[in-house]
Each structure stands twice: as C-alpha cells, then as structure tokens.
C-alpha cells in the first residue's frame, strides 16, 4: 500500500505593509492556482527572536490583516510573515517574510479636510485632520494653508495643532481665492500631499 505524499503548498506572495496615518495593514497575494486556502499571520520586533501570532489573523481567508495594535510604537522596526494552509489536505506552506517596516518612516500622512466660511471680515478657515492622526500625534500636528488669488500669487500660513480656525483678512473685494491645506509632522519631518483645492469669491 502506497503512503500518501503530503501536498506542498506554494507560499503567499507580495507580503508588505501599507500604512496611512499609522493604520498599518499587511497585504499579500495568494500563490497562483491556489484556492480555498487559509492564512496565518505572525509579527515580531526587529532584533527579537520570537515570532508572535496576530490575534484575529489565524486561519483567515482574507488577504490582509490590520497590525496597527501590535506595531504601534513609531520608533520601532517590525517584520511580519504569512503562511498558507489547506484544510482539505492539512498541509501548510513555508512562511513569506515582509520587508522591514517602520511606522515612523513608512506611514503616509493624509491631508486635512478644509472648510471655508466667507464673512464680512474675510475667509474663516478650519481644518479637520484625520481622526487616527489626532489620536496618535495630536499636539505634534501642524498645518500649512496655501492661499492663491486671481493674480496667481501664493501665500502660506501656518496653524498649530490646537488652533480651531484661521481668519484671512484684508482681502481684495470680489476676488476669487483658492486654498489648499497640508498636514505637517515637524518632529518626524513628514508632511502630506496638499488637499484638494477649494475656492471662494470675496464679498
């Protein structure tokens, strides 16, 4: 009687972190021609010996896993790894390792939402930053407000973390002003792209 030969599973591919505003999501792709697979995810701090299971990401069928909780220290470096398993054959693949990941250096910062109110005193500017960033960095967040008038001249204004609003005064009457906002994290020398442009015409 021939003994059954264990089926060797191909490991997952393209294991990598995608991080925005310190929400650190690990993504991977299944091996070609694989179906009905489950995945296990582990993580560790760079330099540590032990791999740790990620809660909620053992035996999952999805192709991503939120590691924000276990990779929450911005100054650390992390690794993650993923393997595939087949319930039908009870076989497991080799682990696939992610590139080394740093929340501080690798996360992308989102621009704030810009809100404008036109009053008789000028343009009142308010910014609403991403909630996740506020929770993480709060007092370390600053904002740049870019203002362009019809002549094409651009001015830049600064707002610190805790300013509720900025009022632009002494503006030309009946003129269009277009504004964009940018999130800045000075301590980490990081900034977002500019927000989409919003324009108003003064009274």
From TrEMBL:
Keyword list, A-Z: Disulfide bond, Receptor, Signal
Any one GO CC term of the record: plasma membrane
Pfam families in the record: Interfer-bind (PF09294), Tissue_fac (PF01108)
UniProt entry tagged with the keyword Signal: yes
SUPFAM superfamilies: Fibronectin type III
Source domain of life: Eukaryota
Residue ranges of every copy of the Fibronectin type-III domain listed in the record: 6-92
GO terms of molecular function: cytokine receptor activity
InterPro entries xrefs: FN3_dom, FN3_sf, Ig-like_fold, Interferon/interleukin_rcp_dom, Type-II_Cytokine-TF_Rcpt
Domain spans labelled Interferon/interleukin receptor: 107-202
Homology family: Belongs to the type II cytokine receptor family.
Stated name of the protein: Interleukin 22 receptor, alpha 2
Source species: Acanthochromis polyacanthus (spiny chromis)
